[in-house]
Automatic annotation (TrEMBL):
PROSITE patterns: SULFATASE_1. Belongs to the sulfatase family. This is Sulfatase N-terminal domain-containing protein. PANTHER family: ARYLSULFATASE FAMILY MEMBER (PTHR42693), BLL2667 PROTEIN (PTHR42693:SF43). GO terms for molecular function: hydrolase activity; metal ion binding. It comes from the Bacteria. It holds the Pfam family Sulfatase. It comes from Amaricoccus solimangrovi. InterPro entries: Alkaline_phosphatase_core_sf (IPR017850), Sulfatase (IPR050738), Sulfatase_CS (IPR024607), Sulfatase_N (IPR000917). SUPFAM superfamilies: Alkaline phosphatase-like (SSF53649).
Length: 224
């Protein structure tokens, strides 16, 4: 009788050595040509520097709607192939307009997660069917079901900058009550703080972070 050996577990998948961290910043209701970096008149020193040090891509197609454009960007596919021909509130039963990103149309975050990345989305999530956005789920099409280990933000196309209703993963956090609370500041802090929470656990794991502050999306609410 052969000796009984202890169970062997496969080693966790690791990203290739030198895999870069990825930070994806989305801005609603901001025209491509408004900033200095693309020929507009609004000063954009940070984006100017990023363009000088990296690459400036000028041929990405947007649909002039947030959910379809985001679905295309997050999957690398045509927005109809990603099931999001319209914003999720206007979804229908027709192919390409269901408001559901199909499982066979993998998100970039899912591919990276399966290849050793830690993944997170901070801010606006407007790519979940409207009838699945309550606290009772189902959660298959929430950010955690689309390849994201962590989510902090709101489940809607827009919200109040001062009194938003927030979620952490699938847990309702409710509405912040601090008198000086401002959503865009909170989301920026969360985007910065999330990697710090991973340092003690997996310091060498590359990161994918997406963030969408919604600050330019109407109704525009200035800080108190």
């Amino acid at each position: 009788m052969p000796p009984i050996r202890p169970a062997q577990f496969s080693a966790p998948i690791k990203a290739p050595e030198g895999a870069p961290n990825v930070l994806l910043v989305l801005l609603d209701d901001v025209g491509f040509g408004q900033f200095d970096v693309t020929g507009g008149g609004v000063p954009s020193p940070a984006m100017d520097e990023l363009a000088r040090e990296g690459e400036l891509y000028t041929r990405f197609h947007t649909t002039a709607l947030c959910s379809p454009t985001r679905a295309a960007l997050l999957t690398g596919r045509n927005h109809n192939v990603a099931g999001t021909g319209v914003i999720t509130e206007l979804a229908t039963g027709y192919d390409g307009y269901t408001g559901i990103i199909p499982k066979d149309t993998a998100t970039v975050s899912e591919i990276l997660r399966q290849n050793g990345y830690a993944t997170a989305w901070i801010g606006k999530n407007h790519n979940t069917p409207i009838y699945e956005t309550s606290a009772v789920g189902p959660y298959d099409h929430w950010p955690n079901g689309l390849g994201l280990d962590y989510f902090y933000g709101f489940m809607a196309g827009d919200t109040n900058q001062i009194r938003p209703f927030l979620f952490e993963n699938q847990t309702p956090l409710g509405t912040p009550t601090a008198p000086d609370y401002y959503l865009s500041v909170d989301l920026a802090d969360q985007t910065i703080d999330w990697p710090r929470s991973l340092e003690a656990i997996e310091p060498d794991k590359p990161l994918y972070r997406g963030t969408d502050s919604r600050q330019r999306f109407a109704p525009v609410t200035p800080p108190v």
